[in-house]
Fold:
Amino acid sequence: MYATLGLLQAVGVGFAAILVLIIAIFVVAVIFSAIKIVKEYERGVIFRIGRVQGGPKGPGLFILLPLVDRMVKIDLRTVTMEVPPQEIITRDNVPARVTAVIYFRVVDPNKSVLEVENHVLATSQIAQTTLRSILGQKNLDDLLTNREEINEELQAIIDEQTEPWGIKVSVVEVKDVEIPQNMQRAMARQAESERERRAKIIAAEGEYQASERLRQAADRLESPTALQLRLFQTMGEIATEQNSTIILPVPLDLFKPFLESQNGSYGQGVRAARREEEKEAERLYEEAVGEATREVSSEEVPTEMPDGEANR
Structure:
């Protein structure tokens, strides 16, 4: 009987020890769970029996009331989020595939917890919707050339929509715009045609400027002496290429000044010959006019006589 009693006492002591150990472990776990450490880039939103306790807490060490307080940690660092590729149709009915990236951060931890369930997912969805809506209103040329204006417009719209959630959208960038292969070939042909047009315009402008310079050069070379000097310069340039034979047409007008300087009567003889030719031409003209006048007058005389005189 005493043995049974001792056994029961030993069992009771062991059970009590186990119970005390369990209670101690539970108390230590509760104490450790009540201690919270908030990092420098984090803020903590504390709920006490379901109600927010003031503003965000942190950084540092905080001790919460066990089973009463609950802390939600919010990261304040900038989040880089890639928007999934979006299939859009531009304003000029061109299909395109657009990808973008968005940079945002939490500026009000309380709003990011109280106003939206998951602020990262919500920002991603609103970015996708806005991207399809805005880019669908743009032409393909605007989408390819006016990237900065489109990025600014997207950033302003998304930031306005996420502001009630305590989210600040700092940058929105359109990364890539993919268009069909046939459209790329059409754009390549258009760019090639534009380059050819510019080349033709530049060539025409060069021809125009060259003609202006040639006209100025011709004005300068009106003097026979200047023209002769230019001829000698051209001959010198040709001779530098070691040609054995040079055939160069020479206008006779180049030699007139020398002929006139050697023989002063050359110019007078030419002028006298011209005057004689003019006089001979006038004489032939007067003779032809006189003969025509006489023929006309001889034909008109019989028609003007009376009938009686004609019978006689």
Q: What stands out?
A: The chain has a mean pLDDT of 79. The longest strand covers residues 95-106. The two ends are 207 Å apart (CA to CA).
